[in-house]
Amino acid sequence: xxxRPEMFQGVDELWMDGEFVDFDDAQIHVLTHGLHYxxxxxxxxxxxxxxxxxxxxxxEEHLERFYQSGKPYDLDIPFDREELxxxxxxxxxxxxxxxxxxxxxxxxxYDSLGVSPGDCPTTVxxxxxxxxxxxxxxxxxxxxxxxxxxxxxxxxSQIPTNMKTTGLYVNSMLATEEAKGNGYTxxxxxxxxxxxxxxxxxxxxxVRDGEIYTPGLAESILDGITRRTAIELARDxxxxxxxxxxxxxxxxxxxxxxxxTGTAAEVTPIRSVDDNVIGEGxxxxxxxxxxxxxxxxxxxxxxGYDDWFTYV
Length: 312
Fold this sequence. Notes:
With about 300 residues, this protein is an alpha+beta fold. The protein folds into two domains: about 5-130, Aminotransferase class 4, branched-chain amino acid transferase, N-terminal domain (D-amino Acid Aminotransferase, Chain A, domain 1); about 135-300, D-amino Acid Aminotransferase, Chain A, domain 2 (Alpha-Beta Barrel), CATH 3.20.10. It contains eight helices and 17 strands. It has helices spanning about 35, 60-70, 80-95, 135-140, 170-180, 225-235, 250-255, 285-300, and strands at about 15, 20, 40, 45-50, 55, 100-110, 120-130, 145-150, 185-190, 195-200, 205-210, 210-215, 240-245, 255-260, 265-275, 275, 310. The strands form two sheets. Strands 8, 9, 10, 11, 12, 13, 14, 15 and 16 form a nine-stranded mixed beta sheet that branches. Helix 5 (about 170-180) links the parallel strand 8 and strand 9. The chain is globular, with a radius of gyration of 20 Å. The two termini are about 30 Å apart.
């Protein structure tokens, strides 16, 4: 067995098809349907070490999207919500994780290898490991430099864009690798109409004249859980939020502020787009206030959001 990547050092077990298994034994056959055709769905979830102890943030919403994501592919997840919740909580306890990233995944397994999955069983697994700021700790404070990718986002008439389908993220990989290859941290992807969709793994928000705009679900974006959180938080803070906006590429360059949201990215400011400095080139005041409120929320320091936490 080759040495594990640094990300997974210290991880002892995963949950797989109803059992806790040793990390190195969590394996599948190379002729697994999901490996060849991207026929699977997944979630990215965070557990935070709150003032009241470790808690999974918006687990119920993530779990609902997990089940909904499988429906277009007739991917039946053979475990109910209670079973997956119990498995996840127990996994975090066994791994002694207070703050971590959680990855549930379900995919068509090993049986036949035609495009139609036929009688392929559904394999379900859950992993968890410590994971800090996705785009880097410095990014949270100072922002990231991004480019508009030459790759376009799939249209919802081609594939369900509001679901977390494994194969769909090849599009995200292409955009991210293009950005990194050109010296940028991340990309912004346009939809087929040429309007702003999102980042490869993040939703996007724009601030103009103190109001907040984000592309609507009809713009071929993921219905992000952190996007929903940011919208609700911002409104609770008194901001006007336009959550069904159509944003042109040109509007990116003239924005007062831009920021990404996502389970991994959390709330990350964008410093420049295609070498055009956004605002003052620093984290803007709206982004700063919303980011502070977000971290107060996920660390359990805000009242009124208790139903968003599943305590470990």
